[in-house]
Amino acid sequence: MIFQEPMTSFSPVHTIGNQIMEVIMLHQNVSHKEAKDKAVELLKKVGMPKPTQMIDAYPFNLSGGMRQRAMIAMALSCQPSLLIADEPTTAVDVTIQAQVLELVKELQKELNMALIIITHDLAVIAELADKVLIMYLGKNVEYASVDELFYNPKHPYTKGLLSSIPKLGKGSRQRIEPITGSVPSPYEISSGCLFHPRCPHFIPGVCDKKEPPFIEIEKNHKVSCFLYKR
Amino acid sequence: MDNGNVLLNVNSLKKYFPRTKGFTKKVVGIVKAVDKVNFFIKEGETLALVGESGCGKTTTGRCVLRAIEPDSGKIYFKMNNKDKPINMLDLDKDKLKEIRKNMAMVFQDPYSSLNPRMTILEIVGEPFVIHKIVTKRRELEERVANLLKMVRLDTEYMRRYPHAFSGGQRQRIAIARALALQPKFIVADEPVSALDVSVQAQILNLLGELQDEFNLTYLFIAHNLAVVEYVSTRVAVMYVGKMVELADTEELFSNPKHPYTEALLSAVPKPDPKYKKKRIILKGDIADPANPPSGCYFHPRCNYAQDICKDKEPPLVNITGDEEHPHYVACHFADKLNLLGIKD
């Protein structure tokens, strides 16, 4: 698992080497020295500069990008077949974001891992994902392949999300269309389809009464919305 | 220069923070947060300030309002074409308070910029109270109600406390407060970076509508380049306390002249799965402003760096020679490099 904020997800009072070695020694039957060698190896793999020295560094000695690399090294320490990355790049700058995304892509290819990436940044999804699941208030909204989702979105919420981001290279000529209202608190969820108070295609008497089923409308494209029938 | 009024003219603005150590507060180093920054903003336009975190964007924005006292430099503020420009740094406390009525600030994080113990009425109405413009309670309520309408908030919410509002609503409250005294100039410090994408678009559109309605001038601080391209007339790129490039938005995005700008543009992931481009990945991290490299600060990460970049600091020059649409760049090879911008 890679966490959202590299700053707070490490223990500040232990060196990153110790924290990575802890994982290795807990799960693999190896000696202290072997664990250390492995940790150095991992740090080298994620592109940490001077890994033999950096292994003794504390998290506050590292910059955001380097901390995120250490985090990835820790997540990879037991050769997982599934890596869960929770907003791996939201806390870092664009230039560092580019480095981290590139690294994750390379490692995925090299180690043949499955990757679950949790993010609100649609651009990151376009870059990394093969399939996308859109959620709203804890429920499935739409599920499709990346290309399908970006070029043929079905659910009004997905469409709203896609039209509310300014795209680079279009300048001020573009028009962004925000979704009206804001996400309600989980305590005051409405009846029926949870998105109906903000939906432009709201059908009175239908959307606010019954919850739409999550159906497959095309091959590998599922939507939960009354606008679509199987 | 055309007849547009230059509202704000900033000249070699400097702010150094001393780094102290231990109990005696001995100065062990200097962080050059803002180092000889020059720019001007015309009335009604939006100048965006972009750069990585820690490059001095926010410090610049705050220095302009004298929320942080700059160390040296000049900030000329001119209400309209007939007036004489006033140097903000010469003013004493009373005069500064007077001129500050014309400027306001919207902060980055709407969760910490609103006092949790004040109601919305008190928060938005506070500028009136401070400047002793409104004394009667009835009138204050009326004025606040008008402001809330302006930012499309329900006026009934006036007596609630900030915790009852969502991030987008809070940012609207902060904007209402900034608009209270009908300022000409607003410093918006990352106004949308703490918000959800769907809400971000609402706030951006609101800022645009208010600008048209009141002929506002924005200094828009941001790190999201897609947002910057959407809102701004001109863009200034900063790197470790220095301005490296300043040009009209379209020019800068399609025809960048500084390698750092090129790298920033290429680093932005596009929300389009078909678009898998070869990007320029910058090596290493942003330089430490307390201990910057020699010569051009960017040279250790630059793909085009040559020997001269290590020794000599490049000056910021206007390469078009056109006064109407200047394109300032600080790079030794600005006219020789062929850099890629972003195209449709």
| Average pLDDT of chain A | 84
Largest sheet of chain A: 4 strands, antiparallel
| Helical content of chain B (DSSP H or I, runs of 4+) | 25-40%
- What is the ordering of alpha helices and beta strands of chain A? HHHHEHEHEEHHEE
Distance between the termini of chain B: 30 Å
Order of helices and strands of chain B: EEEHEEHEHHHEHEHEEHHHEE
Quick one: which chains have the greatest interface?
A-B, 46 and 49 residues
Short characterization:
Chain A is an alpha+beta fold and 230 residues long.
Describe this structure in words.
The complex is a heterodimer of chains A (230) and B (344). Helix content of chain A is 36%, strand content 13%. Chain A is built from 8 helices and 6 strands; from the N terminus they run ααααβαβαββααββ. Chain A has a 4-stranded antiparallel sheet. In chain A, strands 1-2 form a two-stranded parallel sheet. In chain A, helix 5 links the parallel strand 1 and strand 2. In chain A, helix 1 crosses helix 2 and helix 2 packs across helix 4. The relative contact order of chain A is 0.10. In chain B, helix 3 crosses helix 4, helix 4 packs across helix 5 and helix 5 packs parallel to helix 6. Chain B is globular. In chain B, a hairpin with a 2-residue loop joins strand 9 and strand 10. The two termini of chain B are 30 Å apart. Chain B contains 10 helices and 12 strands. The longest helix of chain B is centred in the middle third of the chain and has 18 residues. Chains A and B meet through helix 4, helix 5, helix 6, helix 7 and helix 8 of A and helix 5, helix 6, helix 7, helix 8 and helix 9 of B.
